[in-house]
Write a structure and sequence with these properties.
The chain is mostly beta strands. It has one helix and six strands; from the N terminus they run βββαβββ. A six-stranded antiparallel β-sheet has the order 1-2-3-6-5-4, covered by helices on one side.
Length: 99
């Protein structure tokens, strides 16, 4: 039986340089053992290191994160997000629904 795992992806920026790492945004996805998309990062990151640090922050703060949901414009559809309250009272979005 496969377990859920994080995937790290690089997306090319238009007009990027020859160096693939310099011409990419990085993002993460959480997939189930059957490869079904479960969630994703709230945005992109300028480097693979920053992207991996975001996942480490998510995992380290799971117990303190607050889940939330919101309806979408189409009836019967909704989205979710995990947020973390920071010391300056601004919520930090750790993860969002896949769709």
């Amino acid at each position: 039986m496969s377990v859920p795992r994080f995937l790290f992806l690089a997306t090319g920026r238009p007009g990027g340089k020859r160096d693939a790492a310099a011409a990419s945004d990085f993002l993460w996805r959480l997939v189930a053992g059957n490869n079904r998309l479960l969630g994703r990062g709230p945005g992109t990151y300028d480097s693979e290191v920053l992207c991996r640090e975001a996942v480490k922050r998510l995992v380290a703060n799971l117990g303190r994160a607050s889940p939330g949901q919101a309806p979408l414009s189409r009836p019967g559809h909704w989205s979710w997000a995990l947020t973390l309250r920071t010391t300056d009272a601004l919520p930090l979005v750790l993860a969002v629904s896949a769709r």
